[in-house]
Amino acid sequence: MRVIALVRPIGRAVDWVPLLVAGAAAIALAALAAPGERVGSGLALLLLRATAVLLGTAAGFALVDPLDEETEAAPAPRWVRQWLRAALALLAVAGAGAVVALVLSWRVAGVVPVPLAGMALCALTGPAGAALVVRALPGRVGGLAGGVALAVLCVVDPWDVAHLWWPVPLAILAYTLR
C-alpha cells in the first residue's frame, strides 16, 4: 500500500471550503486591522491567536468523510485515510498561519514572538475534537466538534501555558485516528 498514491484522491475528497474561508478571513484580518498604521504588538498577538482558532476550527472539517460508512471496499484502512486527511489539513493550516505571520511581520511596530506552541495547540485541538465525534456522528456535525473544543479551550485561556499542553490533542488524535 502506497500512501503517496492516496494523496490525490483524498485531497480531492477533503472539503476545503472551511479551510479556504478561515484562511482568507485570517489573512484579511491581519491585512486590514488598523488600516493605514502600524500594528501594535498586542493587536498582532491577538490576531495570531484568532488565526489559530479560526484555522483550528476549520481543520476539524477536513476529517469529515461522508462516504466513510458507505464505502465497504476502501483502498486503504480508515486510519490511513483519516491520518492523511489530518496531515493535509494541518499543512494547509501551517501555510495560512505562515502567511498571516508574514503579513503581520510587515505591519507590526516592533518585534512580536509568534506563539508557535499556542498556534499548534489550536491547530491540533480542532481536528482532535472532530476526531472524537466524527465516528459517532458522521457529517458536518462531527466537524463542528472541533469548534466546540476550541471554544472550551479559549474560555479556559491557556495562552500563558500553551507550550505545555499541545501534546494532549496530539495524543487524542493518535488515539482516535487509529
Characterization of the model:
The longest helix has 30 residues, at 78-107. The mean pLDDT is 84. This protein has helices at residues 4-13, 17-32, 41-60, 78-107, 116-134, 140-156, 162-165, 167-176. α3 runs antiparallel to α4 (78-107). It contains eight helices and no strands. It is 71% helix and 0% strand. The chain is an all-alpha fold. The protein has one domain.
Helical content stands at over 70%
In DSSP terms, counting alpha (H) and pi (I) runs of 4 or more, how many helices?
Answer: 8
How large, in whole angstroms, is the Cα Rg? 17 Å
Order of helices and strands: HHHHHHHH
Whole-number average pLDDT?
Answer: 84
Q: What does this entry show, briefly?
A:
The chain is mainly alpha-helical and 178 residues long.
Protein topology:
Elements: H1 4-13, H2 17-32, H3 41-60, H4 78-107, H5 116-134, H6 140-156, H7 162-165, H8 167-176
Q: What structural keywords apply?
A:
178 residues, single chain, mainly alpha, 71% helix, 0% strand
